[in-house]
Design a protein that fits this description.
globular, eight-stranded mixed sheet, 2,3-Dihydroxybiphenyl 1,2-Dioxygenase, domain 1
């Protein structure tokens, strides 16, 4: 069995779809790209955070849009140190919306906006 490598900093590592009706929205991508849901994590009143599989690999998740949130895709990028990346983000004029929060696997995530308001996320270890 091949050893799993850590994702290279700067590479996209997770794709998250939020939609008013996640199953209906996801069906479009499932039909178009051959994806399927496999496994889920309960998110209380939002329903389930459903994991997206492509060719047997987890590539992201879908969920219902949280109150006040906007539907669409959010892409998460690997960083080598979540705290250092968060500091660079705010220094560069970005805004942290959430995090750093621990996620399964021992890494941390940050949800952010760039200086122009575009949403994205960061994922990486906490080095400090």
């Amino acid at each position: 069995m091949p050893r799993e490598r850590a994702p290279a900093p700067g590479h996209a590592v997770w794709n998250e779809l939020t939609a008013a009706d996640q199953d209906r929205s996801f069906a479009f991508y499932a039909d178009l790209l051959g994806w399927h849901h496999a496994g889920a994590m309960p998110m209380g009143p939002l329903g389930d955070y459903k994991f997206i599989q492509s060719g047997g690999v987890a590539i992201g998740a879908s969920m219902n849009t949280p109150p006040g949130g906007a539907p669409g895709w959010r892409f998460y990028f690997a960083v080598d140190d979540i705290d250092a990346a968060a500091a660079r983000l705010t220094h560069g004029g970005g805004t942290i919306l959430q995090g750093p929060d621990e996620i399964p696997g021992g890494r941390y995530s940050v949800v952010a906006h760039d200086p122009h308001g575009t949403a994205f996320g960061l994922v990486g270890p906490r080095r400090a």
